[in-house]
Amino acid sequence: MLTMRFLKLIEGRGLVFLAVLTGLMLLVPIGNLAFPPGSPFHVSTGTVVLLGKYLTYAMLAVALDLAWGYCGILSLGHGAFFALGGYAMGMYLMRQIGTRGVYGHPVLPDFMVFLNYKELPMTWWGFDFFPYAMMMVLLAPGLLAFVFGWLAFRSRVTGVYLSIITQALTYALFLAFFRNDMGFGGNNGLTDFKDILGFNVQAQGTRVTLFVLTCLALMGTFIVARVIVSSTYGKVLIAIRDAESRTRFLGYRVEHYKLVVFVLSAMIAGVAGALYVPQVGIINPSEFSPANSIEAVVWVAVGGRGTLVGAALGAFVVNYMKTFFTTGWLASYWLFALGGLFVLVTLAMPKGILGLYDQLRGKFSKPATEPGREAA
Amino acid sequence: MTNMSFTRRGVLGAALGGAAVMASGVRPVFAQGAPIKVGILHSLSGTMAISETTLKDVMLMLIEQQNAKGGLLGRKLEAVVVDPASNWPLFAEKARELISQHKVSATFGCWTSVSRKSVLPVFKELNNILFYPVQYEGEESERNVFYTGAAPNQQAIPAVDYLMSKDGGEAKRWVLAGTDYVYPRTTNKILEAYLLAKGVAKEDIMINYTPFGHSDWQTIVSDIKKFGSAGKKTAVVSTINGDANVPFYKELGNQGIKATDIPVVAFSVGEEELAGIDTKPLVGHLAAWNYFQSVKNPVNEAFIKSWKAFKKNDKAVTNDPMEAHVIGFNMWVKAVEKVGTVDIDKVIDTLPGIEAPNLTGGVSKMLPNHHITKPVLIGEVRGDGQFDVVWQTKDLVPGDAWTDHLEGSKDLEADWVTLKCGNYNTKLKKCG
Amino acid sequence: MRILALLRGIGLALCLALVALPAAAQDARPLPDEIVTRFLADSFGDTEAAIGAVAASGAPQAADMLQALGDRRLFISASAKGLFYRDGAGKGFDARTGQPADVPADASAVRLNNRLRGVVQAALGTLTLLSPDPVQRLRAAESVFKSRDPAALPAIEQALARETNARIRNVFEEARAAIIIADTKAPEASRMAAASRIAETGDQDGLALLRQLSAQATGNLKSVIESSIQTIERRQQIRQAGQTVWFGISLGSVLLLAAIGLAITFGVMGVINMAHGEMVMIGAYVTFMTQEVFRARFPHLLDWSLPIAIPLAFIITGLVGVLIERGVIRFLYGRPLETLLATFGVSLILQQAVRSWFGPTNREVSAPSYMSGSFEFIGLQITYGRLWIVVFTLVVFFALLLLLKATPLGLQMRAVTQNRRMAASMGIRTRFVDAMTFGLGSGIAGIAGVALSQIDNVSPNLGQNYIIDSFMVVVFGGVGNLWGTLISAFTLGIANKLLEPFAGAVLGKIIILVLLILFIQKRPRGLFALKGRAVEQ
Prior knowledge:
Chain B is α/β, with parallel strands linked by helices and 432 residues long.
């Protein structure tokens, strides 16, 4: 009974998505650990790291799709939530370095030693304690989204205006984190991590574990998102997306609905960022750059907005393109390819890759997954 | 990677491998043996492309020249170019790709400190060699990295010494202006400590930081002017980075700050940057480097000539980080020839002690701390965008990884030959 | 007029006589060989000695030689063991004799450093105080003020006695006062008078001089100097406030210029045009190319390259804009958020295209003479470049306003953006108007690029630096309202500059952004919101 409900909830393409993720989660570690390099079944550690990175991006895309695709909140600042989660994790990892920094200081990270910090700033307190750091991974982006959303939705800032001020938000944070006086490592950010929970971050086992965790997190995110959008609450979200004023006149507290989904989406983005940092090995203010956030929006659009699966697919496709095009003689042309893709997708595939797929199969998706009208 | 061919990602992965084949296998095979691959890790797009693209080109030229000479160990050299797109995590990803997929024997790359910091763990984990060609803040010495750019003692301190000298104008009051990132922060910290030790009063030092790409310099330039009117000879030490320099110098010129009144000595402004500015109002402002295009000697002239021919542009300029790559590449070639293999560990162990001619007429040497010896030159901006060398150290200055002017690094020492350690604490007598 | 010419003639004669006076006896005699050998040694110490000797030699070509030295036009030739210089027009002279001569091929310019440059200026100052050219006199007086060489005092007195230009007179007086006050052997009373004289009109340089002296002075003199310092400081403080406001206006005009095109494409048409910055960049590159053509073909008309670049930039970027509109945007009307994605792609393509064609490095766009340097206006230092940009911005703004409000095309543009269907039924060719409107917005962005090429990098990244600020300006001012954009740009500019001295450049900008976010909560549609139902959906 429960299984049936679950299957219905997830839908066919969601099942394919979960199956693919499960396959990845099982096969990649086996390929990496069980088969020696040189074997045709070997998956190199580089590939594990790369796939892991894509998966965190996919998580960010799903989070963004939840807010944009289902509630019409086009945030051009989701990179900020991602980065905040990343910084929270990065701070934990920095504290784990302990005396192994180049100056051998027992408490202070290297950059603080050469900036003459005498003691740990208050913002860093508690980050050596893993549960606290994990709490901050959720709280920092969540709180920011709550305060920002509460202000913005209450005063009915919508559409383009909302997009622009979310951009202002991430831009302000971008500038702020660049400042060395903030005490977050400035432009160099946080790097040279050693261990996580006592395991060496560079060890094969740790990498594979992180990869599996990321797969699980993405699956979890997807299921939670599906549950939300299929619930009554989700239906109201879609109503808000399609006709905000009408929904309000029907008696719904629109701003509450928006706030909840926005905060949730920010928290998922934060978790994605937290998983991203130990795999990539660095977090720096450029993650806050407005262009990064726009790119995340583009992933969603490329894959197919309002489909969740499409968002993840878009993140994969665009980032794979980036990896592919930035090597060898293609390197000088990759911005053409990327830019061309964005133009092509918006013009020829307004519903993204998934939409195109549906069209090709000759069955149009249900109205609920259609990109709705926006404030024009 | 190929085990996943039944998934969509697997197809992508296979294509990824295909890209590697495509990038490597198109040219005819050289002499005997597979080509030796050299990674080039410089941004070709994004904000840093402005500085890094020429470094990619200079590497391509050096590799081409080496191949014309018969390659290395009888094998052809092959450049693997990747574009990390001024994106720091992408630097790490691309470094990993170069090493584990393309199996490069050495990599030449990075510009900003953060890009170096981002790839460091990768180079350590996969044990490969990085040649880093840009002047930087020091405070680092890694087994896998060879620093061919200037450490602070090879650029900042001699420049300040010059400004304090009679010829430099006997500056007594200092403005340390920089972009807010690690290199200027550290350099200014070192300089501040140095100036205080030289008896400069605290109130005679003004420190100012601006964000990357800062374009409105009106207030700051007028502040500098005001600070400079306290009756003491004032000089500006600029660690302003890249894009922000053009508007800064334009504002200096427009507000009429002449080099004879308040000279500005810059550490990040070379021929390449000046190519974008009308330098006539800036004549006399200074830059400290280890190389200038205007240096007259046969080696440099030959290099400039081949560079212009390679770029097919008679106006192409050369600059300091390019020279660093020239030195680094030649050192690597010599080390490989000496040890007769491209085996990473053997090359790393052989490099210290290797000597290669620099373009200013001397011979630079790789030191046990993985930095090199370089001359320090002070150049004055000319009206044509070049520099006149007005002062130069008599001997080559050895690069110092850990400055003596900062509390934390005073007792540290790097020596990869005898101590096998990048941060040996001489007080505690232990590594790290 | 004739009297003036006559006076000038007399002045010239007098001046020539004066300069020639000490040298009259040895007029044709060449410079001593020692000077030449010292220059040939090419060491800074020798060069310094040689400069002194040239200045003292009284040779008629001394001033020209020193001028040439300062401009890197004095050459040494090892093969000819000689010293040569070129005049401003490039004609060669043998420095030893002052006679026309060919400069040998191996000649290299005599090197200077900043200290020597100061020495040259001081020597030149004394030699050119009586020059017939007022610009040279002014420069001479300024360099005497800086060198404070007591030997120049008699020449200053002479020059002062004849000077008719009030501005130059003032500088002469200041220079004289500077010499006297710095001369420890001068009587105390005259030094005190000199201090008060400097306090009268002195600026930052005067302040520097007085501060330097107050450390050494004692007794009455010290107290006079201190009070003089206070006088100047008080004056400077008032100026400072004015200066900050001016900086703010100037920054505001840059913001306005960058945003004004966006106010059309985004504000009026509702296209979230992320490629706007690249239009600005293209405009800057058009300027660069125009200048290159002028440099190669008509070097004497280089100053005209900027005015000519303006229409060119407008047309070229306008055409690019029309192309983008026809090729991309027209399929996306009514879907503003999707225009964001498409134009973001366009912006990446344009950036890389420019990078491929022109290379990633900065391109040089030089400032025309009328945009170089600065002048003082009621004590404010105003740079010509910035002033022109402010003026230019306002001209563009009002021209655009006029176009929108007073021409048929403007009427049609407003009609189409307000109600496309109704406009179409009235017989307006909406597609044509769409293309024109987008072209107009892009063209104006191109014009902005011409002006911004004067203060910023001409590089493929140029546009990126302005796009976010531009959006903030338009949103803050209220989308669709040009006046709002104007007020918003200047408000943000001035607020930024007021904050900068306290908070620093970075924090200042962060504070502005946060205030902006909060402001939008208060007025979700900007300063000047369009009224009516149209805004609701």
